[in-house]
Specification:
Blueprint lengths: L7 E7 L6 H11 L4 E8 L5 H8 L5 E6 L5 H12 L8 E6 L9 H7 L4 E7 L6 E3 L3 H17 L13 E4 H11 L11 H9 L5 E6 L1 E3 L11 H19 L4
Parallel strand pairs: 1-2, 1-4, 2-3, 5-8, 6-9
Antiparallel strand pairs: 4-7, 5-7
């Protein structure tokens, strides 16, 4: 099975990832045997991320996108996707991954291979057979499991079990259509809930979603998480409000 051709465009979210980005870039290069480009959004990092990216750009196909101040993951998605979609054909693959090393590039080839036929999005899933959480902080694990259980109950998107993970491969066409319609509202819930919101916004445009098993090993991350529990609880509450007001709770 082979996925769509064209340049693989990879959006990487980076906040204080100076220690993680060099290894991530090397692992991506080792994993892919086709042309790709990285769109790294430096979201107001306060460590040496900017300097590290300058050095990495000399050895890797990187376009650095700078937020002078930390604007959060919702703004990172908007900045990264808009840049990555410039000049993209409707079938070109667009991948979103974290810059902290937890999005294992070893899964890339399988994800891209599954992005074929009627499939418009492939999710690296902790809930597909063989997928798992590993070395997760208890509070973050509880929130993730609870959010996914509720989203599966309320949203019921065919083929989707893992709504909250960053790591996905999309066809460019549906992303372009959704961004043209919703603009900044594509990620209006903010926080980490906007991962799920993007799927909901794309729901009517996705012919088929697939999942591949993924072991999310939090032990790969160096440094502290930027996720704040209270802020993300609020963002999930906002997401459900958006879902019922705009979608009528019909999906």
């Amino acid at each position: 099975m082979s996925g769509p051709g064209g340049l693989v465009r990879i959006v990487v979210a980076a906040y204080n990832e100076a220690k993680n980005l060099p290894r991530l870039c090397e692992r991506i290069r080792a994993a892919l045997r086709r042309e790709y480009r990285l769109f790294v959004v430096n979201d107001g990092s306060r460590d040496e991320t900017r300097e590290v990216l300058k050095g990495l750009a000399e050895r890797h196909p990187i376009r650095v996108l700078e937020h002078e101040e930390n604007r959060g993951i919702a703004a990172v998605f908007l900045t990264g996707l808009r840049a990555a979609l410039e000049g993209a054909g409707p079938d070109d693959p667009v991948v979103i991954m974290e810059g902290d090393g937890t999005s294992d590039p070893g899964a890339l080839r399988r994800m891209l291979a599954e992005l074929t036929g009627d499939c418009d999005v492939v999710i690296a899933s902790r809930y597909a057979p063989g997928g798992a959480y590993r070395n997760f902080p208890p509070k973050r694990l509880l929130m993730s499991r609870a959010a996914n259980a509720l989203l599966r109950l309320v949203c019921r998107m065919p083929g989707v079990r893992d709504y909250t993970i960053f790591y996905r491969a999309y066809r460019a066409g549906p992303l372009k259509e959704a961004l043209a319609e919703f603009g900044d509202r594509f990620t209006s819930a903010g926080g980490f809930a906007c991962n799920a919101e993007m799927l909901l916004r794309l729901g009517g445009r996705i012919r088929q979603a697939r999942e591949v098993p993924f072991v999310y090993d939090y032990g790969f991350k160096k440094g502290r998480s930027s996720m704040r529990i209270k802020d993300n609880l609020f963002s999930y509450l906002l997401l459900f409000k958006i879902f019922f007001l705009e979608c009528g709770g019909s999906r």
